[in-house]
Each structure stands twice: as C-alpha cells, then as structure tokens.
Specification:
By secondary structure, the chain is an all-beta fold. It has strands spanning about 1-5, 10, 15-25, 30-40, 45-50, 55-60, 65-70, 75-80, 90-100, 110-115, 115-120. The protein starts with a strand and ends with a strand.
Length: about 120
C-alpha cells in the first residue's frame, strides 16, 4: 500500500490550500482515511477522518469549520480543503488509512501512512 500526499505550499494567513492523498495497492473504497499533522517541534495531531463511503466525518476542534475532508473512491484519493489558514496550521500533513474501515482519532488505528506534505502559513 502506498499513500502519496501532495498540495502543500507556502500560503499567506487567510488563504486556502487543498491537499490530496493518492492511494495505491489497497482496497481504497473500504478504507477509512485520516489526516494528521505535525507542527515544528511538536507531536502528531489528529486533524480529520472520513469513513469508506464518505458519510461519517469528524474533525478536530482546532480546524472546525475551516477544513473539509472528502474522498473520491473512483480516483482512490482523499482530499483536505483548508480555508482561512492560520500560522498555527503550519505543519507537515500526513494521510493514513485503516484497512478495516474503522474511524477514530487514535494514531495506532491506522495501518499505512504517507510521507507527508509541508504546509507553511506565513506572511
């Protein structure tokens, strides 16, 4: 299973970015997918999760209502639309999958992880 994130960039406060995570080698349509981030010098912070059908979605309080998670099972891709970005959103963003479709905010629930994409929010 391979997960590849893209879309990270340098953006000004108040700006928007859309991250993508492309999956291969898995039964993507039955996987729960999550986004997790790691700010400089800090630990992993869970951001959002979406179930296999896109019906069940959860967000960390720190990103509500600015971020939106979605998925396209035909493209084996999960997205994270990030609006009204703040400097504190600066982090490496990772996607991860749970092959049993279990959703949650615990890092140990996720089997496969991507390499991450850097998001920097700064003027």
């Amino acid at each position: 299973v391979q997960l590849v994130e893209s879309g990270g960039d340098l953006v000004q406060p108040g700006g928007s970015l859309r991250l993508s995570c492309a999956a291969s080698g898995s039964t993507f349509s039955t996987d729960a997918m999550t986004w997790v981030r790691q700010a400089p010098g800090k630990g992993l912070e869970w951001v959002s999760v979406i179930d296999d059908s896109g019906t069940l979605i959860e967000y960390a309080d720190s990103v509500k209502p600015r971020f939106t998670i979605s998925r396209d099972n035909a493209k084996n891709t999960v997205y994270l639309q990030m609006d009204s970005l703040k400097p504190e959103d600066t982090a490496v963003y990772f996607c991860a999958s749970n092959q049993y479709g279990v959703i949650g905010s615990r890092m140990d629930q996720y089997d496969y992880w991507g390499q991450g994409t850097q998001v920097t929010v700064s003027s």
